[in-house]
């Protein structure tokens, strides 16, 4: 018996990636939509056979509580809307999957965790890389110290973006900027590849195209310090392309390049091992794993606490940049 998923927000990611992915899943399927754009409704209903009873807008979304076809709401909205709509979904008694970054700040993340705990539903963050096979291999290298102790991590995620200045990704109050959008990938990667939590961070944020990224970062550089002396050099950008996770160890090295793409994630190691790209649909695998965790009542791969830890680091990065790159304790 498949779980029914309602996508909340029908923008780029829902339309082009998640809805097609939900045609390939074994443990869940697309059964509902929540949208503020009436013109999208007939298109989605026809394409995916969604009945009138499972179509909602943002004002009626709470009524999903009465819909037994829907088990999960997947929040795929601008970042500043994640907390509000996750909480509406939780209070409707539905499991919540929420896209990265989890929310704007730690307080919002806590409110989301509280709402899901109070309602006895799961809260899972859309950290698709943690479900990707080559990523899981290098996580195991870290746990088993296959190449020795990790001594340094370098990771960057970015692309040449061309947002309109009023696009939410360029608007500070909506969670715009490269750090919220792309920075969470290297931050999350530093944590999953080392299995450790950083203790301090310093950072610098700036924009070159001030006409577009006037009040949020086009670029962020940051350094994380871990308890055993491990350091991580992170970068993210809306200005130039980058997509690497490089890990140095006491007895060798390994890397994933690219490390955050939807497909083609590829690895290499100091002893010549090649981690060939996995051909599967990354998001279908993520959603199946997350559906299985609900069905089996087990902990999801990336629970809300995972998102909260990264958002705490995001906030410290912004604080450090405002203080001219001062080290911030975490
Ligand atoms: P998008 O701009 O294409 O879509 C956003 C949707 O929200 C649109 O359908 C828009 O109509 C709707 N919306 C509702 N209220 C809005 C408002 N007040 N202002 C603007 N839009 C509003 O964005 P997207 O690329 O689909 O991203 C959505 C979320 O998914 C973000 O949190 C993003 O970080 C995340 N995402 C994750 C991945 C991933 O690989 N995990 C990839 C892309 C996006």
From TrEMBL:
<dbReference type="Pfam" id="PF22725">
    <property type="entry name" value="GFO_IDH_MocA_C3"/>
</dbReference>
<keyword id="KW-0560">Oxidoreductase</keyword>
<dbReference type="InterPro" id="IPR008354">
    <property type="entry name" value="Glc-Fru_OxRdtase_bac"/>
</dbReference>
<dbReference type="InterPro" id="IPR055170">
    <property type="entry name" value="GFO_IDH_MocA-like_dom"/>
</dbReference>
<dbReference type="InterPro" id="IPR036291">
    <property type="entry name" value="NAD(P)-bd_dom_sf"/>
</dbReference>
<dbReference type="Pfam" id="PF01408">
    <property type="entry name" value="GFO_IDH_MocA"/>
</dbReference>
<dbReference type="InterPro" id="IPR050463">
    <property type="entry name" value="Gfo/Idh/MocA_oxidrdct_glycsds"/>
</dbReference>
<dbReference type="InterPro" id="IPR000683">
    <property type="entry name" value="Gfo/Idh/MocA-like_OxRdtase_N"/>
</dbReference>
<feature type="domain" description="GFO/IDH/MocA-like oxidoreductase">
    <location>
        <begin position="143"/>
        <end position="254"/>
    </location>
</feature>
<feature type="domain" description="Gfo/Idh/MocA-like oxidoreductase N-terminal">
    <location>
        <begin position="4"/>
        <end position="127"/>
    </location>
</feature>
<protein>
    <submittedName>
        <fullName>Gfo/Idh/MocA family oxidoreductase</fullName>
    </submittedName>
</protein>
